[in-house]
Amino acid sequence: MPQIPLDPSVSDQAPDVDTPTDYDREHLVTYLRLLDADAEGADWAEVAGIVLHIDPKQEPERARRAWESHLTRAKWMMQHGYRDLLESKKPADC
């Protein structure tokens, strides 16, 4: 089973398609961290700096857009995308 990176570099924009992508698979831990921070009511700017490694003081618009798109994708993965990931892992004879 391939290792999932714990802290991969992020793009400025998360995917916006109806199926999980390789980017999504690579960023599962990122998505979990964003969901945890959101559930705790963490400040978006702090999360962008810590989780996405984008300084909100230096690049506020980029940081906000990246945070919004990745959090939206994380929520989509939690509600819908995980099903496709599970389906792709089923043995062929099931």
Describe this structure in words.
With 94 residues, this protein is an all-alpha fold. It contains four helices and no strands. The protein has helices at residues 22-26, 28-39, 44-50, 60-89. It is globular and about 40 Å long. The two termini are 19 Å apart. The model has no long low-confidence stretch (mean pLDDT 89).
Furnish the topology, listing elements before pairings:
Elements: H1 22-26, H2 28-39, H3 44-50, H4 60-89
Helix pairs in contact: 2-4, 3-4
Based on the model shown, name its key terms:
94 residues, mainly alpha
End-to-end C-alpha gap:
19 Å
Low-confidence stretches: none
Q: What would you report as the Rg, rounded to the nearest angstrom? A: 14 Å
Apparent shape: globular
Summarize the structure.
The protein is mainly alpha-helical. The chain is 57% helix and 0% strand.
